[in-house]
Amino acid sequence: MSEKKPRAYSSYSRDALTPPAAGEGVAWLGKQPWAHATPSYRLLRFTLWSLGWLLGMRVRGSGLDRLATSGSRLLVGAPHRRYYEAFALGIAMPAAPRVWWLGLGPFIVGRGRLRAGMLRRLGGLLPVWRGTSGIETHLQAATAVFAVGAHYGVMPEGGTGGPADRFAEFRPGAAIIALRTGVPIVPIVFRFHNRRLGLPWVEVIALPDTSPLPSGAPAPEHGSREELQLARTWSDALADQMEAVWRGTLPSAA
Predict the structure, then answer these.
(1) What is the residue range of 94's domain?
(2) Which among 1, 168, 202, 209 could bridge 184 via Cys, Cβ 3.0 to 4.6 Å?
């Protein structure tokens, strides 16, 4: 058995845990998610790529082309130590279908109406507030995303405060979503290559599709102890596998 991983953390005040009157996830968005790449989103992708290039950042993707034609996938990304891993993936992967991220509302949209309005228009985010959110909120958001043929993205470490030299513990929510929806998981590994000048170079590596449920095995009862145990055990194993790819000790086989 591998050594137990530490938990990542995020620091925020208690009043930031209360969701807005509009609600969370799809309720916050106010409409159904979409899979197509709007002109504003394509412009954002080009702008981010251009700024990154000018500042010395290069993004290289591996195994991502299949996301354009493989149907909806649950994208599980790690490690999460910066706030722009999601942007790196957005640049590296095909423009459509879109990926919609689970994100912490207190950090991303809880700091002003202008930011919230822009994010609603651009799409790609379904925020939650950890003080009240349970798996049903995440499951509802993911189900809405899969219904339109888009991808749902999760950073299972749950925060950017994990150790710099290893992965933090994976929370089991993504595995439970996969168990209940049957949508395959695509692990996404981020490698940042820091440089003396300019922004780091980023590798975005998509590993082969996987699932917490062995082929042909019956799914455990929703909400049961067996479901939670399977999700936790499988998430721990996935974290070890992705960390080995991140360290370069295991081929990506993408």
Answers:
(1) 23-247
(2) 209
| CATH code for the domain in which residue 37 is found | 3.40.1130.10
pLDDT tens-place values along the chain, 254 residues long: 467 788 887 666 666 677 777 788 899 899 999 999 999 999 999 998 898 888 888 899 999 999 999 899 999 999 998 878 888 999 999 999 999 998 877 777 656 677 778 888 889 999 887 666 678 888 999 999 999 999 999 999 988 888 888 999 999 999 999 999 999 999 999 998 877 777 788 999 999 999 999 888 888 999 899 999 999 999 999 999 999 999 987 666 65
Map residue 74 onto helix, strand or coil. Answer: strand
Residue 8 belongs to a domain: no
In a domain, 149, yes or no: yes
With vertex at residue 102, the alpha carbon angle to CA 88 and CA 245, rounded to the nearest 5 degrees, is: 50
Is 95 inside any structural domain? yes
**Number of domains the chain is built from:** 1
CB atoms within 10 A of CB 56: 12
